[in-house]
Amino acid sequence: MPITKMKGKIVLITGASVGIGAATAMAFAAEGAKLLLAARRAGKLAEVASRALEQGAAAVHSVGLDVRDRNAVQRIIDELPPEWSEIDVLVNNAGLSRGLEKLYTGRIDDWEEMIDTNIKGLLYVSRAVVPGMVERKRGHVVTLGSMAGEMVYPNGAVYCATKSAALAISDGLREDLLGTPVRVTSVDPGLVETDFSLVRFHGNADRAAKVYKGLEPLKAEDIADAILWAVTRPAHVNIARITLSTVHQANSLLIHREQ
Ligand code: NAP
Q1: Which residue of 58, 94, 116, 121 sits 20 to 30 Å from the alpha carbon of 40, by its own alpha carbon?
Q2: Beta carbon of 226 within 6 Å of any ligand 1 atom
């Protein structure tokens, strides 16, 4: 069965400036895709763009985007240059956690930021991009869920809830796209060592490092590999979910650490 080739395909990756998004850009670059990279930090995006071109990307177009700004999301998609407008693959990766606290003492500003980014941002980008996929009768939406969306861990209720919502949105979108060839995949990792924990702890590097202490976490490249695998299956194969973790992690609650 022929696999779906990425050469010359337009791949939009949100949150492409660092971490899983940047690694995903490299994975698609190596397949000769055209990369549409979006995030807020233009400087970091420029670094990823130049590495992606070295890696073999057919072309790169970067856009400064805060996915929480619904008007900006729609405007950027509507105003893409014609050679960039027919998006084949959307990787909904932009997201973050903020805080690790009991629900009844948590910071409401942290909640707002997670909900606005991980749920509403995901919806805005999908709403702007998917109609074109339906019209062109081709496309694939990959959304970063999380193991945290499958099982809640203590002090993480709101982040976990946003990732449960992401899973529900992927499942619902897959249902709503039935009868079209557009595919939907949720990729749900456990612990991946990126800036994720640094962002969660508002820049506290010592606290962030402890998250990965005594275990071998997944790397951003492991997730990129799973995303690329799902997207390159034959066109009739719809990979609904991929849950992956390090061997040191069984689920959100069970983690093995070497002494
Ligand atoms: P990361 O290294 O902190 O990267 C997060 C990315 O999201 C950055 O590129 C950031 O770019 C972007 N982003 C955040 N808020 C944004 C906004 N409002 N608008 C546009 N872009 C925004 O974290 P990561 O680990 O790669 O996380 C990527 C995704 O994987 C997230 O959805 C996360 O929830 C999910 N995930 C991570 C893990 C893990 O353990 N690391 C596990 C499961 C799921 P800018 O700051 O430049 O905008």
Answers
A1: 58
A2: no
